[in-house]
Amino acid sequence: MKPLQPFEEPAAAFPGTRAEALLRVGAFLPRAGRHYAAGRNTDQGPGHRSDVSILSPYLRHRLLTEREVVERVLAVHGPREAEKFIHEVLWRTYWKGWLELRPAVWERFLDERDATRAGAASGLAKALARAEAGETGIDGFDDWAKEITDTGYLHNHARMWFASIWIFTLRLPWTLGADFFLRNLLDADPASNTLSWRWVAGLQTTGKTYLATKENIARFTEGRFSPKGLAETAEPLREETALPAAKPIRPTPPVPAGKTLLLMTGEDLHPESAFPKGLDIAGIATATRIEGTRPWPFGDKAGRFLADAMADAASRAEAHFGTGPARMGALDAPSLLTAAKACGATSIVTPETPVGPVASTLASLAPELSAAGIPLVRVRRDWDSRFWPHATKGFFPFRERISALLREEGLPG
User: Fold this and answer.
1) Longest Cα separation, the chain
2) d(Cα 151, Cα 103) in Å, to the nearest integer?
């Protein structure tokens, strides 16, 4: 076996371009097999991570798609050797599918978060401020809090430790911890973030919690941290109403004939591969903010990353579809109708927007757009249509279907 070349972790900053994402994929590919499987749980700290890909911000906004990353990894390592990495990529697909089948769980999180914040007493507010500022005195936890706010990134294993300490040691509301991640992590999306916090708390898989321990943290940080005074038990949290039953995923209607306006929102920034051939895209509109609703994107750092990524995607889309410059604006009906009229479009298409603030806003805008004679069509990728319906239960039943579903995608399974 050819020895691996020395690996240099990308800079803490995340340039918001597809070119950067492809460079990072190429650099990590040699390590995506057995090396990743052996070292993925170890967090050596910023600047020293040779065992994880650090691709999540690009996958979250689909500057890279899950399919193309899996395809490239399989071409180098094959299904068996790359199994662990592929499963981690597909966790993101699974969480999106799970929430798509149960969108009420996202609304439940928002309602509980907002009610908890509104009713927070001064003592809770001070405790939250200390936790978010990394001033609790807990070894490791404080460093991770600062890493999150400084870089917009945190190793996945450290996220689990952080969430566990937040919930079971500090006794802080899980919804406000999930909100802290949403406001600061570049890769935080409604599905992966919300459902991962629910899992740590014992809500996602009823009764199953995750307990951070001094020994585990010391082992997988190679002795960098060894926190004292952590909770020794993790009693699962409970919610008053049971999880809603899974419901069928909304079908994708056909795209009407004629000229159409491409809407890019940041949920999928590789439109070149999102639509069927022959689509007559006459113009492009981009939106990185929602007026009059809950904030999106969730924080300043994520907003800057998304603005750069959107500009990069718009430039690529203009060249690919042969349109004029994209029109920048808010995600509202007047802006979209103006953009459609300017290019003579009779419909609007956008890549699928999974459950979250963007999807909610588009659902609210669709009737007004339709009444104006401009239907809005959200086009789902084949990858999502293939995998999402199988997220009916836990990840392990989903995992059993991965090989067969990859083969259906034309990939080695």
Assistant:
1) 65
2) 30
Give how many domains the chain has, as a whole number.
3
Q: For residue 147, what are the domain limits?
A: 106-220
As beta bridge partners, residue 286 has 264, 328
CA dihedral angle for residue 256, residue 66, residue 55, residue 358, rounded to 10 degrees: 40
* Whether 192 and 301 share a structural domain: no
Pick the closest to residue 29 from 12, 13, 7 (CA basis).
Answer: 7
Angle between helices 190-201 and 104-118 (to 10 degrees): 70
Q: Does position 67 have pLDDT exceeding 90, yes or no?
A: yes
Q: What CATH number is attached to the domain comprising 286?
A: 3.40.50.620
Best CA proximity match to 323, nearest among 264, 256, 376, 370: 264
Global pTM exceeds 0.90: yes
Regarding whether 116 and 64 lie in a shared domain, the answer is no
pLDDT surpassing 50 at residue 79: yes
What pLDDT does 7 receive? 47
CB atoms within 10 A of CB 301: 20
If asked whether residues 320 and 290 sit together in one domain, one would say: yes
Same domain, 267 and 309: yes
